[in-house]
Design a protein that fits this description.
The chain has two domains: about 140 residues, no CATH class; about 70 residues, ACT-like. Chain A, domain 2 (Alpha-Beta Plaits). By secondary structure, the protein is an alpha+beta fold. The chain has eight helices and four strands. Helix 2 packs antiparallel against helix 3, helix 2 runs antiparallel to helix 5 and helix 5 packs antiparallel against helix 6. The chain is elongated and about 90 Å long. The longest helix is centred in the N-terminal third of the chain and has 28 residues. Strand 2 and strand 3 form a beta hairpin.
Amino acid sequence: MSVKDVIRKSVLESAVYDQSISLSTFMTIVIDMIVALIIGYMIYRIYKRFFAGVVYSRYFAFTLIGMTVLTCMVTLAISTNIVISLGMVGALSIVRYRTAIKEPLDIMYLFWAITEGITVGASMYILAAVGMLIMLVLVICMSRSKETSGAYVMVVHFATGSVKESVLDKLSPYVHTVKSCIIKDDKTEMTVQIDMKKDDGIAEEIRAIEGVNDVAVIRYNGDYHG
């Protein structure tokens, strides 16, 4: 058999042009799409529950559901025929996404939705369930470790003079490091890194010092507290 005959047999005469579908295949498609929808919704709820960034995007959260379902659909399409799979690879390779991802964890959620969609599209439900459970545990652990993180940055604006010593005296019970101290005319901006389990009211105590104009307490993950 020549190469031409092989190509004709494997491609031109393949089932890609046959639009008939059996009942078992139809049921597999329906079940996989429904499972992908359920898993995508679960990822959406987990993302909404444990989101700890600056601005929550409802549209991005809904994208996780659609990403899971669409990836499942693509996997179902390419798993049945080599011609379709090659066509999908060629079509998707020219797509370019230029949307900036501000939160690093959002990338993890996107890949989570994509991998779950691929796994469900391949009808590997046990692997999808195990992966879902492991990722849920990981997200919970990361959320708890973030809550106990003690990295804060405090920015204090005050009048130049003895106010600086009063501010540092209030910070003395904490492990802190003065990162910068900018003096402009009669005003000073001091940035201090401070380690504490939570914002326990130290900002209000420093703000009450005479000569202090304002205080901002910022966590390293971007949350604004003062």
